User: Fold this.
Amino acid sequence: MPLIMVGQNIQAKHAELRAQHDFETDTKAEKEIETILLHLENQQQLILQILKKMEAFEKKK
Assistant:
């Protein structure tokens, strides 16, 4: 019986370490995704500014 309990404790520790690693990986991925989204939003703003300038230029012709 004690051997089974030791095995269960080891399995629980491994599961806890996996869960912690998964959490850290997910947290890092979330930060990277937020950075990418901010970059894309900035690009969208720049593209819209360029389009407005092009439209203004076309109207002047």
Observations:
- The radius of gyration is 26 Å.
